[in-house]
Design goal:
six-stranded parallel β-sheet, binds 3-phosphoglyceric acid, single chain, 17 helices
Length: 414
């Protein structure tokens, strides 16, 4: 038992039918019918392998695509093929989620066999829009079609989907109400690693917050500064530009227009309040960079031209941030320092990421852009921990109780 949740060590799965919810949501190349990345599939392999090798009949539930931002549901069929290859044993697949065909296939499973069901979000009650409109309690989720049809066929439920732990949906929170439940190995690693950062980080503990996901960054900053988790917050990207604007610094008209055009104006007031309270812990850029005719330009604050749009931190800032990161014992990173996708504005992100690789401190990274930057610079093997979760990680670090954690604690007692 860890954090009130059972682990696989406390489950006897031999001969049992285990429903295992994974998060193998990946970018899809629709034209080719293939997955553009398989990192989340790879990450859940240890749990699936362990369950199968211990003699469980393994039924995998997963979603692919989102109804909120992207409206891009897709079948899980390609995922079964990738899993088969990674595991070196067949992962069966069926184009059904909880209908008669899926239920028959589950009944026919033999010990050690693995079946992946089709996208659980093909079932209306699993959709995020449904979750947001109706807000079913966990007890109500136990009465949804998915849970009522599948739970009677199963003995146990395992959740390995930390990346979806912020979602309050039947496949994630309903089964724990009716089946003895545990977290899988990936969930265990991710949840324990990020809990450690929040509860007892080795100090100094530095947060590097950049990128353009402003609401996430501000929520996290309020929590980690308010709770005294962060000793220092290094700001970059749009987050830094908002703080500099709040402090009345000249950062170029293009930079301010972008903040206002994106409706981030309200964060200028929040930045003022945060800086008034925690200013000594918040590091802001001392220089900025922009691009003119494909060429990188830099200036220290006070000399930034009025007509530019800053899209990177400057090299003095990058050097100062490197020193902070090298001296830290724990570093949490979310969001790049600038537009690292183009060569002229990648210096800040590249330098900070190199410092993350070089520091003897423990580094934790999460979020799509941060992972993309890590892969771009070939530093994946040099980071302490790369979390598969974006939204879930941010919600957790913002101090929210994750619905799946609450449900798993309930299921630990069954
Ligand atoms: C993710 O990609 O962050 C997870 O798979 C959760 O997906 P969602 O945001 O569509 O629920």
């Amino acid at each position: 038992m860890r954090f009130g949740i059972k682990t696989l060590d406390e489950m006897d799965v031999r001969g049992k039918t285990v429903l295992c919810r994974v998060d193998i949501n990946q970018p899809v190349d629709r034209a080719a019918g293939t997955l553009k990345s398989i990192n989340r599939i790879r990450a859940c392999v240890p749990t699936v392998r362990e369950l199968s090798e211990k003699g469980a009949k393994v039924v995998l539930l997963a979603h692919q695509g989102s109804d909120i931002e992207y409206k891009n549901y897709y079948t899980t069929r390609p995922h079964a093929a990738v899993l088969t290859e990674l595991l070196g044993r067949e992962v069966q697949w069926i184009d059904d989620v909880c209908g008669p065909a899926a239920r028959q296939k589950i009944r026919e499973l033999k010990d050690g066999e693995i079946l992946l069901l089709d996208n659980v979000r093909f079932v209306a009650e699993e959709q995020t829009l449904f979750e947001m409109k109706l807000r079913l309690t966990h007890e109500q989720q136990a009465k949804t079609l998915l849970v009522e049809k599948l739970a009677p066929l199963a003995d146990l439920y395992v959740c390995d989907a930390f990346a979806a732990a912020h979602r309050d949906q039947p496949s994630l929170c309903g089964f724990e109400q009716v089946l003895p439940s545990a977290m899988g190995r990936l969930f265990e690693t991710e949840y324990c690693t990020v809990s450690q950062v929040m509860e007892a980080p080795d100090r100094p503990c530095v947060f590097v917050l950049g990128g353009v996901k402003i609401s996430d960054a501000f929520l996290m900053m309020e929590t980690v500064l308010g709770k005294g988790v962060a000793d220092r917050v290094l700001t970059g990207g749009l987050v830094a530009n908002i703080f500099l604007t709040a402090l009345g610094k000249e950062i170029g008209r293009g930079s301010v227009d972008f903040i206002l055009k994106s409706n981030y104006g309200e964060y200028i007031e929040k930045a003022k309040a945060l800086y008034a309270r925690y200013g000594e812990k918040i590091a802001l850029p001392e220089d900025l960079a922009w691009v003119t005719d494909g060429q990188r330009q830099e200036a220290v604050l006070g000399q930034v031209p009025a007509d530019i749009a800053a899209i990177d931190i400057g090299s003095k800032t990058a050097e100062a941030y490197r020193t902070s990161i090298l001296n830290a014992k724990t570093v949490f990173v979310n969001g790049p320092m600038g537009v690292f996708e183009q060569a002229a504005s990648e210096l800040g992100t590249k330098a900070v990421w190199q410092a993350l690789a070089d520091t003897p401190g423990f580094t934790v990274l999460g979020g799509g852009d941060s992972i993309t930057a890590t892969e771009k610079y070939g530093l994946s093997d040099r980071m302490g921990y790369i979390c598969t979760g974006g939204g879930a990680l941010i919600r957790f670090l913002s101090g929210e109780e994750l619905p799946v954690v609450k449900a798993l604690r309930h299921g630990a007692a069954l």
